[in-house]
Automatic annotation (TrEMBL):
Residues 1-62 form the DUF2007 domain. It comes from Stagnihabitans tardus. It comes from the Bacteria. This is DUF2007 domain-containing protein. The lineage of its organism: Bacteria, Pseudomonadati, Pseudomonadota, Alphaproteobacteria, Rhodobacterales. Pfam families: DUF2007.
């Protein structure tokens, strides 16, 4: 697995997942419930992982759809 997106914006992860699903690229979200443990909503970044073999295509899909560059890894 390779890190594709890391962001504190709660709208970017579902947007990225929808774009990737449209291209049949599986993505896995990490740190979904971390704010529950720490009590700090939106302070900890969420991460979106993809398989190593899908990384370059997945990144290209997000870039082609004007995904914010600061969230891409």
């Amino acid at each position: 697995m390779r890190l594709l997106v890391s962001t504190t914006d709660p709208t970017l992860i579902p947007f990225a997942q929808a774009l990737l699903a449209g291209e049949d690229i599986a993505a896995f979200e990490l740190d979904v419930h971390m704010s529950v443990f720490t009590g700090s909503s939106f302070l900890l970044p969420r991460r979106l992982m993809v398989a190593e073999r899908d990384y370059f295509v997945a990144r290209a899909v997000l870039v082609d759809n004007d995904f914010p560059a600061e969230a891409l890894k």
